[in-house]
Amino acid sequence: MDPQTLDLARWQFGLTAAGHFLFVALTLGMAPLLAVLQTRATLRGGDATHTVMVRYWGRLYLINYGIGIVTGLVMEFQFGMAWSGLGHVAGNVFGASLAVETVFAFFVESVFLGLWILGWDRFPKGVHLAILWVVTGTACLSAYWILVTNGFLNHPVGHAVAADGTLVLDDPVALLTNPSTLLAFGHIAGGALLTAALFLAGVSAYHLYHRTEHYELFRRSLRLGVFTALPALFVTVVFGGLQLESLTTLQPMKSAVFRREAEEVARLQAELAARFGPGDYLPNEALTRGAGTLMMLAFALLMYGVLAAVVFACFRRAVYHARPWHLVLMAMVPLPYVAMTAGWVFREAGRQPWVVYEVLRTEDAVSHLSAGRMGLSLAVFGTLFAALIAVNAVLLLRAARRGPVESPRS
Asked: In the chain, where are the structural domains located?
């Protein structure tokens, strides 16, 4: 394998996967918040303010969801084109989980989301609410099935090796209960909820800072975001800590590199060379440690910011009039994206040189393409993703600044 082709393929997957995850984090976290808001509106007999809140935040959710679907399709294309070796060797194991995820994400979730969009004033309120809860549940299931695949790549379990050297599914229960999958799911679910909660708080702070007319709506939204962010942050940090502890047994080389344990790194390098032949079995140390450190720094800032926000949100006057605090909340919106992207880089880069840990090397999983073709592919996919991210940002900002179309008093 041409080293240049391998590097270009890794950059392509890294950029497209990280770009797609920017959409997933907000979509996955917004769904339960919308469901809770609509539940409150339904239980209160169609409370006007909560109904307008659902419609407003639902519009932002749909913008992010729609463009996120496009990025997911693009990522699937590049994955199939650039990593045919992975599908050939391990597709029999994780192919089913990807297929189930597609059913949930592109069929069940999309169909019910369409029913929710078109169902306002057409379905009974209870039915319309149930549809949104189905959307929320399928979004979580979709994330879980994706992590079944990713968990297998990081900690391959439940498989056997066929006579031709390919992997076959041997123990479905082991695959579905993989600790690498379950811990990552808890971490991602908490992080996504944190992302959405701070998005609500930040956008609401913008409107309160500018004294827009829907002050009561955004007061409630800000408090919902802030008070959701605290338990979401706690869940994220707990599952992140459990993942770090699990690395000592699941991926000891990554753990040793991150903790700067030089003697352990040397021992593991010698052990892996004896098992798999001569070679460099160290991940990129600067990238692994740098991403892990950035992730922890971002979460530390989030911890201080969220704790302070909870205190401020307890005082009605501060929610309305503390304009410096409003600026801080707006500035905090990107922090979960930074933390989760850095965490993803740490998770993926830290297992190199393996695409399936200690089973399949990354260089053996890349399609047999020339560096020129891979470079062209990277340029096309990179440009397309940059355009989609820019369009999403512009549409979200425009819709967020516009505020609710309906009035709670109407």
From this structure: 199-366
